[in-house]
Write a structure and sequence with these properties.
- The chain is mainly beta.
- Among the domains are: about 55 residues; about 80 residues, Immunoglobulin-like, CATH 2.60.40.
- It has one helix and 17 strands.
- It has a six-stranded mixed β-sheet, with no helix packed on it. Strands 12-13-16-15 form a four-stranded antiparallel β-sheet, with no helix packed on it.
- A hairpin with a 4-residue loop joins strand 5 and strand 6.
- The longest helix has 29 residues.
- The termini are far apart.
């Protein structure tokens, strides 16, 4: 009886050895071991957990999946240190560098709708940069929930408005130290012009110097050179009363009056010039 038990144990051990041997041969035949220390000429460098710095050559694709195969809340978290893309000594939390010109060193934000970049301070939203499909590129103020700055698709710039109609459209006051229209630049508002006025009073003795015209006597005077007439008046020298026959009117940068008969009169012209 004892001999039979020992024989059965031997058979079981022999069967286990045989199974393990077949499994090893099968596994080895489908996996080619490296011929050089990783990273070598025929295997990628491994990424291992630990606090030792490692270099991964080639593409690293992080799926961001959970152990059950579902999408993870986060794909990649860098808890400490700086991240360099094209930069081997990143000087900031994210340092993008390219040796090529053009868009090779750009950061692309591509979404089906509005693309945003947010700037926080002490855990609080402060400012945002948004590509708004219906307006353009805007700077967003989280404190006021508004866009104080917007550039639309026509390259118009709006300050205080999201629909600028001109190259610069400002909704509010503008303060500056100068203003240029073309090559005409000003650093102060032009001084308001002032008027310098004088009265030209001409005396006509008994109509002398006046010209007869259709039964009337027409008397005229003129403002000095550089002046323009702004008003006319006059009166009879004998009565000191204003004219009543024809009245006064502007005439040839001066004044004129028509009277039914010659008389002593004063014709006045108010003359002014811009200082």
């Amino acid at each position: 009886m004892k001999t039979k038990i020992i024989q059965n144990i031997k058979s079981i051990i022999l069967a286990l050895i045989l199974v393990l041997g077949v499994s090893y041969v099968s596994a080895y035949s489908t996996w080619a071991p490296p011929t050089a220390t990783a990273p070598g000429n025929n295997i990628d460098a491994p990424i291992n957990a630990g606090n030792v710095g490692q270099i991964k050559q080639g593409t690293l694709w992080i799926k961001g999946l959970t152990t059950s195969g579902g999408a993870a809340a986060n794909g990649l978290i860098v808890e400490n240190g700086n991240v360099g893309i094209g930069a081997t000594s990143p000087g900031s939390k994210l340092h993008v560098k390219s040796s090529s010109t053009g868009s090779a060193g750009a950061i692309v934000v591509d979404t089906p709708g509005q693309a945003n970049m947010e700037f926080w301070a002490n855990g609080v939203h402060k400012w945002g940069l948004a590509s708004v499909p219906s307006n353009g590129l805007g700077i967003y103020n989280f404190s006021t929930s508004s866009y104080p700055f917007m550039i639309n698709d026509s390259n118009n710039v709006g300050i205080g408005t999201t629909s600028p109609g001109q190259k610069l459209d400002v909704n509010g006051y503008v303060k500056g130290t100068g203003l240029c229209i073309g090559s005409d630049c000003k650093t102060a508002w032009p001084t308001a012009p002032t008027l310098s006025c004088t009265t030209v009073e001409t005396y006509f003795a008994n109509g002398s110097g006046c010209a007869p015209s259709s039964g009337f006597t027409s008397c005229t005077n003129q403002c000095p050179s550089g002046y323009f007439v702004t008003g006319c008046g006059g009166y009879r020298a004998d009565t000191l009363n204003p004219f009543t026959d024809g009245g006064t009117r502007f005439y040839n940068n001066g004044c004129a009056v028509r009277l039914s008969s010659g008389t002593n009169l004063y014709l006045q012209a108010q003359c002014c010039k811009i200082q």
